[in-house]
Amino acid sequence: MDIEEVEKLLLEKEKNLDEYIREERAVVRLCSHSIKESQKGDLEKAKKLAEDAHKKMDLLPRIPCRGRHVEQEYAEAIAFIAVLEGQKIPGHAEIGVSPEAYLLGLLDCIGELKRVVFESLRHGDKVKAEEYFARMEEIYEGIGRLHFSSALVPELRRKQDVTRMQVEDARGKLIK
Description:
7 helices; 176 residues; single chain; mainly alpha
């Protein structure tokens, strides 16, 4: 038996995974900060943070079963910035994320858009709120009809359910 050799190999893999997870968290923090800056209206800073996240993300090694979360956060940040700028949301290949991460990131973007709908209403700008709501609906209608196994796209069904409620909640606020 070569238990010691296997242990040594697994310890090295564990060390590499620990390093990867640290770097992955740094990218997620940059994406989160980008979204917060977008919420505050500083889109230039948000774009810079998203760009920094992308650079760090590109340096991450490809580890099977890892990477989806960081790509999802990045997709969310890029989609949110695009909507706030009134631009078309870039495709998954254009931003360099997997199709699965792209869908999940877009669904998360709906929650951010709900916040800007509410903020727009709070500031008395119903026109802007309706524009953001239209983008929420556009994203949800595109993804809400998709059905894939949770083995292929974990969390898709749950996120679709959550975003459906977010869209309906925002619709209710706009009708008042």
